[in-house]
Amino acid sequence: MKIDNVPINSKTAKLLKEKLFASWGSVRDQFDTPNNHSLSRILYKSLYAPTTIADNEITERIGFDRKAILTQDIKSPQKNIPSVEEFTLVVVRALTSDIDYSKNLYPDAIPTIEQMAQYGPIRIWTKGDVYGINGQPGSAEQIKKVATAGLGKLRNRIALQSGKNRKDILTLKAAEDKLPFIKEILREFKNQKIEIAILLDNNIDNIINAIEESKYIQNIRIYPIWLHDKNEDTFEHKKIKNIKQVTKIKDVLPAINTILQHNNVGFIVDFDGVLVDDKKRIKAQFETVYNKLKEKKWL
């Protein structure tokens, strides 16, 4: 594939991709959540003034050498260099509003959500860049991702067909820290006479923490499902012994058929890695950023 007549696998493109996700990873690992404004400012220095990156802006992780990537000179003839503010505005938009996330969903994501809505209310429970952190503003990324994924259109169609209130079908809970939403969702479900909340996440720590939080809400229980690649190293983790595991979202409802038939249920569903294919997301984010930088002649 080529973007702006430059091969996507050129040395410049490959290094930009490494720099983009080294910036993302540094911010995510430092603050336990990504922030696109912080990411953009690190990426700006990495592209135009790599020797000015401070050590405290880089968070290393085993298996990565982010400092080597971020401080490497990209050696690309730059026709003009933007201000950091202009650059940040363009990159943040490229990572959020300029991407159609409906193209990054797993093939069975929308059909499965539609089937879930036949059994009970759905709460999309997602962590990411929303309101801001560490003095940096948020980009409402998670909200924009869900909006472009087509879940709103699906909700409207179901509401029209069923006569249900849209909020009784599906709503979004998004923040830099999503864990506090668990108690709120469970209380809401409990008021609707729901007995079991089906929790679907691709991060085992999120599941374990949610189970712990659920202990504070009586007369409703969480039934956790871990959606993940069974080749992961954590597959035999002692804490997940009794947690249902599936590898594809289409397998979720068949795996809990008995529960669905005999209980009033609601659903708490993670977004990234569960509905969104992260490999497609990463590819789309990189290509969009690359496109914009080439279009602006900043790369």
Protein model, in words:
This protein is an alpha/beta fold. The chain folds into 2 domains: 2-98 and 279-295, no CATH class; 106-276, 3-Layer(aba) Sandwich (Rossmann fold), CATH 3.40.50. It has 13 helices and 10 strands.
Question: Could you provide a short overview of the structure?
Answer:
With 299 residues, the protein is α/β, with parallel strands linked by helices. The chain is built from 13 helices and ten strands. The longest helix has 21 residues, at 11-31.
First-to-last CA distance? 18 Å
N-to-C order of helices and strands: EEHHHHHEEEHHHEHEHEEHHEH
Give the strand order of the largest sheet, numbering strands 1, 2, ... along the chain.
6-3-10-7-8-9
How would a crystallographer describe the biggest sheet?
6 strands, parallel
- Gyration radius over CA: 21 Å
Number of beta-strand segments: 10
Strand content: 5-15%
Question: Which CATH architecture of the largest domain?
Answer: 3-Layer(aba) Sandwich
pLDDT averaged residue by residue: 92
